[in-house]
Amino acid sequence: MKIALGIEYAGCHYYGWQKQDISPTVQEVLETALSKIADENIRVVCAGRTDTGVHALQQVVHFETSSQRESQAWILGTNTILPNDVAVTWVMHIDDDFHARFSAQERTYQYIILNRQARPAIFNGLVTWQHRELDFDRMQQASQCLIGEHDFSSYRAVACQANSPVRTVHKLEINKLNDWFVITVCANAFLHHMIRNIAGVLMAIGIGKEDVDWAAEVLAAKDRTAGGITAKPDGLYLANIKYPEKYTIPSPKTLLDKFGLSL
């Protein structure tokens, strides 16, 4: 049978999602826990790989197993074994044609910035800290040029292995509540470091280091060297994966709803 899971994790202490020679990774600890519950070797497929230090409000995975377990056993049993910073939030039996990655229609990432003079303590590693004052209006105005289908070569990592730099951004919103900024980006797919590079450009504009038109100029250059620094991974969250309605994949409800954001 094929099973789909929703996973949330804080990526501070992990070398990203993907299992590799360096340890630990989120995939590694999840597969270890699931294999113990299933009493067989489990390999999972995820909706989208996240880098070192990046978090997930909802990562979606699927795996195949011959083990018969109740939903409660998959959730509670697996969470008993998992580290405290990784948790299974839901589980469901899924159609055989479902694929966590290839069935996805849209992915949503959110980048959280704490904008104040004092560094964070409680949220250390969970948000990006910017001590210089950000201009919300400048960032909002600059961001609009990135909506739509574009060649995002200037906004992807030099080592990005995607065959095409063209991506379609369906929504790019910036919300502000007191000292908190949240950048929400929905797209059909993302390039390596794309969100962090967008955040880096928008923050440079927000602090007045660059003009508002710079975001569009960077995009038009189609050259990574034309862009700014890559923002830290601390504030980056994989927030949601949208699938066809027939699969009835749950949509996450998080504290970020307080910002009036809809996934």
Describe this structure in words.
- With 263 residues, the protein is an alpha+beta fold.
- It has 2 domains: 102 residues, Pseudouridine synthase I, catalytic domain, N-terminal subdomain (Alpha-Beta Plaits), CATH 3.30.70.580; 134 residues, Pseudouridine synthase I, catalytic domain, C-terminal subdomain (Alpha-Beta Plaits, 2-Layer Sandwich), CATH 3.30.70.
- The protein contains 5 helices and 10 strands.
- Helix 1 crosses helix 2 and helix 3 packs across helix 4.
- 39% of the residues are buried.
List the helices and strands and how they pair.
Blueprint: E1 2-9, H1 26-38, E2 45-46, E3 55-64, H2 71-81, E4 86-93, E5 106-115, E6 128-130, H3 136-143, E7 148-151, E8 166-177, E9 180-187, H4 194-206, H5 214-221, E10 236-242
Helix pairs in contact: 1-2, 3-4
Q: What are the salient characteristics of this protein?
A:
20% helix, 10-stranded mixed sheet, 2 domains, Alpha-Beta Plaits, alpha+beta, 263 residues, 5 helices, globular
Query: In this structure, how is the largest beta sheet organized?
Result: 10 strands, mixed
CATH-level-2 architecture of the largest domain: 2-Layer Sandwich
Gyration radius over CA: 19 Å
By CATH, the superfamily of the largest domain comes out as: Pseudouridine synthase I, catalytic domain, C-terminal subdomain
Tell me the number of helical segments per DSSP (H or I, 4 or more residues long). 5
